[in-house]
Amino acid sequence: MKAGRAVPARGFLAAVFSFSSLCLVLAAPARADVTVGVAVPRSGPYVAVGEQVLRGVEAAARDANAMGGLDGQTVVLDVQDDVCDSNSATAVANHFINSGVRLVVGHVCSNASIAASDLYAANGIVMITAASVAAKLTDRGLPTIFRVCGRDDDQARLSAAVLAERFRDRKIALLQDQTASARLLAAATKDNLNRIGINEALFISFQPAEKDDEALVDRLKAAGIEVAYYGGDAAEMGRLVKIAADRGYRPQWFGTSAIATPDFAKIAGPASNGVLMTFYLDPSRQPAAAGVVKTFKGQGVDPTGSTVYGYAAMQALVAAGNFAHSTEPRPIAQALHTERFDLVLGTVGFDSKGDVTAQGYVLYVWKDGTFTPAGK
């Protein structure tokens, strides 16, 4: 990584793509089209996160095209639904390969990204994810695989540290469903918590279903659980929190980045107030994203959650391509690995594994339908 040098996301006078600055920039005419594949869940339990990522990607592509495109070529998007499923993700990857797509933003769920990334790497395709947190994704060192979000091992370390600091003398339950992401987060949090010298009261694996959810809540209540940690999706977490509140049971609920969507608060209702959550540093509150956030809000769009990360993923591809003066994956990957760029995340680069150098996870608390930093 070259220190002390930042390459602006190309756009003449603009350091960061911004809707509000488009009228001030005379765009160079684009010469042709370059297709960027976008793989997100447009159905299934993680559709809300998929829509956030897609919204950000589409906005960044529009901004890029208004300022000359990717190395002078107009960015067009090929959007595919991977349902957050490994087999579907593999099918989507093969679709991109057969269609000649060389740059991909996606996938959202880690199992989908891991399954597809082997195909992308084997075919020299650059993939950059806005939401897949599994350490395995980048720990393999595939040279064309990147992410702009955090890693689950970092998230688990923060979760364990918060549990130890705030709830050392409370009865803690760690919950996991049958999804890969929830299992990994629960196991990693347990491992980190146990290393600190704290043992959970319960470690429960369950299958989300209405009757099972009620039975799970009753089990937690009967065991006197005071803190319940769960790494599952927003809909399931919302149901559990609401069921517990309806039964007059209000433990301290603790979620992860999977609930960073307004859907969680809509499902949980007023019981969502006070729920803790680990999530990446929210760039929508950072100066580098101010212009983009202002435009989103002006359109009636809430840019929290993974929206700005979707924007950053596309923005990074365009910035690297403009630096390399190429739409080809190899020079773009090299630029991502060796340069630093001014993005909505701030001035960042990517390490040898493909992990972004931006700040990691932060503790948030839900209140009145939104989440804010929890502080000390």
From TrEMBL:
It comes from the Bacteria. Keywords: Amino-acid transport, Signal, Transport. This is Branched-chain amino acid transport system substrate-binding protein. The keyword Signal applies. Residues 1-32 form the signal peptide. Belongs to the leucine-binding protein family. Residues 34-369 form the Leucine-binding protein domain.
